[in-house]
Amino acid sequence: METRDQYHAIWQKAYDNLNASQKLAVNSIEGPVMAIAGPGTGKTQLLAVRIGKILLETDSAPQNILCLTYTDAGVVAMRNRLLSFIGPEAYNVSIYTFHSFCNSVIKENIGLFTDFRDLEQLSDIEEVDVYRSIIDRFGDDHLLKRYKDPYWEKGRLKSLFNLMKQERWTHQTFVDALEEFKVMCSSAETVPPQFAWGRSDKAANAKKGDPSQTKISTALEKYEKAVAASAHLDDYQAALANRQRYDYQDMILMVIKKFAEVDSLLGKYQERFQYILVDEYQDTNGAQNELLFQLSSFDDSPNLFIVGDDDQSIFRFQGANMSSIVDFKEKYNVKPIVLINNYRSTQQILDSASKLIVNNQDRLVNKYPELVKDLVESRLEKLSNPSRPHLLEYENPTCEEIGIINQIIELHGHGVPYKEMAIIYSKHKYVENIVQYFTQKNIPLNIRRRVDVLKEVEVEKIVMILNFLDIESRKPNVGRDLLFKIMHFDYFNLKALDIAMLSIALKQGREKDIDPDDEKSSKEETYIHWRQAISDPVFLQNAQVRDIEAILAFSRIIEVWLTDLHNFTVQVLLQKILTESRCVDKLFSHPDKTWLLQVVNTFFDFVKDESAKSKAY
Question: Could you tell me what percentage of the chain is helix, strand and coil, using 3-state DSSP and rounding each to the nearest 5?
Answer without folding.
Answer: 60, 5, 35
